[in-house]
UniProtKB/TrEMBL annotation:
The chain crosses the membrane at residues 21-40, 60-81. The keyword Membrane applies. Residues 358-493 form the GGDEF domain. Residues 501-750 form the EAL domain. InterPro entries: Biofilm_reg_signaling, EAL_dom, EAL_sf, GGDEF_dom, Nucleotide_cyclase, PAS, PAS-like_dom_sf, PAS_fold_3. Keywords: Membrane, Transmembrane, Transmembrane helix. CDD domains: EAL, GGDEF, PAS. This is GGDEF domain-containing protein. It comes from Idiomarina piscisalsi. Residues 107-148 form the PAS domain.
Length: 750
């Protein structure tokens, strides 16, 4: 037995079919044709007319049927034309009132040209249809920064039948708007697309209304057509999918009877038009959904009837994404702790509400060398340790105190309602105990951590959140520099120290373009007191900080990738100075230059090759001093360049010999001509018997290998006499003179 709803639906379908004029015309035509074929011959026979007339009517009777058919076709055409005009008018009204512009685009000779566009384009974007169809219109109005992306995405039409993308487009009034372009490829030759173009600029505005709008991939929109009484005539499948209703549920029913709107206090009869309404409910799978209902009135059709289009946009995914984005913006994904953004908001709120007789403190905790844990055990183990450390910190801090993760292995703790400094120090000691306790790893292994903690206190160290955090960071960095202590309170001196460091780093980038770098030279003598050369030493005469040694500024050059450039600059300056000495009649045997291993590069070899071609006699006077400790396990490329430099005529000296562990290896593998004995051995030569024996052994060994030996830091006659007796070849030190400018270095001492 049929369901009652099915019977009612069948009756409605038959009733609506009979009301169609074209269907009624077909029925009347069939009846008229049957009647004509049956009745007309009998009527002709029975008519009281002459036989000739009857014969004439019988002969023309088929043509009468043709005339009847023509009359039928005339009225049938009128009915279809009326229906077509009605459909076209509804479609035109939809296009005219729709916020979406529809178009057809073709690609001919690499030109993207619009061949058809819906009439609402002028209302939505300000351009007429003729302007839209002009050559190059689409490309010329895309925002310059989005043009490349738009072109690349459009080329997906060769491979994908349908795609969606967003970009900025110039409105006729001159400003740019965001548009969502939904494109479907309809032909390959020529490449043709049909698409819909929606102005989504309001979607990007952070307002409650905007949060309800559709996004590119996460929303779906269903449509319902309503009659003049606001009852549903037809719905599409997306409308039913979103709402969980069926076609039967919707048939000839009011939206107000089906949907639950949350942001209307009073519904007198109908939902209002041209307004975004929030709808909630459960879909067919009984899952909660949120959607936006928007109703627009279409222009009256040709017979005066009014229709409405209702759009139901599913925003469930958007709301879920908003919650996820909120979490991503304010919480660390690994530890689950609030992050830097949360710290700024919470600390600002705390300072606004803190009583005048209370202190607040910001502690920044950064683990020392935590990268070694990741390198040794893997990042998955490092992540687990950070999660366990997070729990330890949360268990350690006082009740109500928040712990924040500022990224990776850096944490922040905000202490509120602090009465005295000693309270902060107590909590710092407890934090240190929490991370110093070893972390157990699989297979019985353990990891112990150390950390540096910096503290800034409100209101003494700052009155706003950003300043307190910055100064706690200063204190933490200072704690890292202080090897004896791993915690530090902020002081004004720290700011000055960090400001000086920042100023020095900024000046280091351009110092070679100034005359602030000075070259000094310390004489090198034979054991009988003859000056045979000099060692070039650099000093930075800073206009604010005074004279700076290489130990201060070379790390800055290294950090700014300037070591190569600095080394080349020194070599060129020394070559120029040697040439000047020769012009003055002074001809040193060798001029030594200190180089770091990082400076032994292809650029150095290329520079020396060029200088060798221009001034070969001057280049052979150079002597490169390489610290033994920097040559520990040198790269093959470094050894190769050293060998090439030796072939160019440059001498190689091992500086600070005996300080490192690879002395014998360097003598074996490198074309060394001289060694310089570490200053520490020479300083104790006349007071420490073991140092004396070590120096003598080094001189005996290297002399046996055919190498020259030079002592550094000779300060008295006793040291000099001992070196002579051991067979040393050269020396330098304050016993003769310290480093001086080039004009006086070779002048004899009085």
């Amino acid at each position: 037995m049929k369901d009652g709803n099915e019977i009612v639906a069948a009756k409605k379908w038959r009733s609506s079919l009979w009301r169609r004029p074209e269907f009624r015309l077909i029925v009347w035509y069939i009846l008229a044709a049957i009647a004509w074929k049956i009745i007309a011959p009998e009527m002709i026979i029975r008519l009281p007319i002459e036989d000739n007339t009857k014969e004439f009517l019988t002969r023309w009777e088929p043509w009468g049927f043709v005339a009847l058919s023509i009359i039928y076709l005339y009225f049938f055409t009128l009915a279809w034309a009326s229906r077509l005009r009605k459909s076209r008018q509804i479609l035109h009204n939809y296009f005219h009132n729709s916020p979406t512009v529809h178009y057809e685009l073709r690609v001919v000779d690499s030109d993207y040209r619009v061949y058809w566009v819906s009439p609402n384009c002028e209302r939505v974007m300000g351009y007429t249809a003729d302007e839209v169809k002009e050559t190059g219109w689409w490309l010329s109005n895309i925002h310059p920064k989005d043009k490349e992306l738009a072109l690349k995405t459009a080329l997906r039409g060769f491979d994908e039948p349908q795609f969606v993308y967003e970009y900025r487009f110039r409105h006729k009034s001159g400003h740019y708007v965001w548009v969502r372009d939904e494109v479907r490829c309809i032909a390959k030759k020529p490449l043709s697309f049909q698409g819909s173009w929606t102005n989504i600029s309001n979607d990007l505005i952070e307002t409650p209304e905007a949060s309800r709008e559709a996004s590119e991939y996460s929303t779906r929109s269903g449509f319902a057509l309503l009659n003049e009484n606001r009852r549903i005539l037809k719905v599409d499948s997306l409308f039913t999918d979103i709402s969980g209703l069926t076609q039967k549920d919707c048939a000839d029913t009011k939206l107000e009877e089906l949907l639950t709107v949350t942001d209307l206090d009073d519904i007198s009869q109908y939902f209002p038009c041209n307004r975004a309404l929030l709808v909630i409910g459960r879909n067919a799978e009984r899952k909660r959904y949120s959607a936006i209902l928007s109703i627009r009135e279409l222009s009256p059709d040709v017979i005066g009837k009014t229709y409405y289009v209702a759009t139901l946009t599913d925003v469930t995914t958007i709301k879920q994404q908003q919650k996820q984005l909120q979490r991503l913006a304010f919480f660390d994904d690994l530890t689950g702790l609030p992050n830097t953004n949360s710290l700024a908001l919470d600390l600002s709120r705390l300072l606004d509400e803190l009583p005048d007789d209370r202190l607040a403190a910001v502690l920044i905790l950064n683990l020392d060398h935590f990268h070694r844990v990741n390198d040794t055990f893997g990042h998955h183990v490092g992540d687990k340790i950070l999660q366990r450390l997070t729990q330890r910190l949360k268990d350690t801090v006082p009740f109500g105190t928040k712990v924040y993760n500022l990224g990776g292995d850096e944490f922040a703790i905000v202490l509120n309602q602090v009465v005295e400094y000693i309270d902060i120090e107590t909590i710092i000691r407890q934090l240190q105990q929490s991370y110093e306790s070893p972390f157990a790893l699989p297979q019985g292994k353990q990891v112990s951590l150390s950390a540096s903690i910096g503290t800034a206190v409100y209101p003494l160290d700052g009155h706003d959140a950003s300043k307190l955090v910055a100064r706690a960071q200063f204190a933490m960095n200072s704690a890292k520099d202080q090897q004896a202590s791993n915690s530090c309170f902020y002081t004004q001196e720290l700011t000055q120290s960090n400001s000086d460091a920042a100023l020095l780093e900024e000046d280091a980038r351009s110092v070679l373009q100034t005359d602030q770098i000075q070259l000094l030279y310390q004489p090198i003598l034979t054991m009988d007191g003859q000056v045979v050369g000099a060692e070039a030493l650099t000093r930075w005469e800073h206009p604010e900080m005074g004279t700076l040694s290489p130990h201060t500024f070379l790390p800055l050059f290294d950090a700014n990738n300037m070591l190569d450039t600095f080394g080349i600059w020194v070599i060129e300056q020394v070559i120029t100075q040697i040439e000047q000495w020769h012009d003055d009649g002074v001809k040193p045997e060798k001029i030594a230059i200190n180089l770091a291993t990082e400076q032994i590069s292809p650029l150095l070899y290329e520079t020396l090759t060029r200088l060798t071609q221009d001034k070969p006699e001057l280049v052979r006077l150079l002597e490169f001093e390489l610290s033994e400790s920097t040559l520990h396990e040198p790269l093959e490329q470094t050894l190769d360049i050293i060998d090439k430099l030796h072939k160019l005529g440059v001498s190689l000296v091992i500086d600070r010999f005996g300080k490192g562990l690879g002395s014998m290896l360097h003598l074996k593998n490198m074309p060394v001509e001289k060694i310089k004995i570490e200053r520490e051995f020479i300083q104790e030569l006349d007071t420490n018997g073991r140092s004396a024996r070590i120096v003598k052994a080094m001189i005996d060994m290297t002399s046996a290998l055919g190498l020259k030996v030079q002592a550094v830091g000779v300060e008295n006659e006793t040291q000099l006499e001992m070196l002579k007796s051991y067979g040393c070849h050269y020396w330098q030190g304050r016993l003769y003179k310290l480093a001086e400018v080039s004009d006086t270095v070779f002048e004899p001492e009085n």
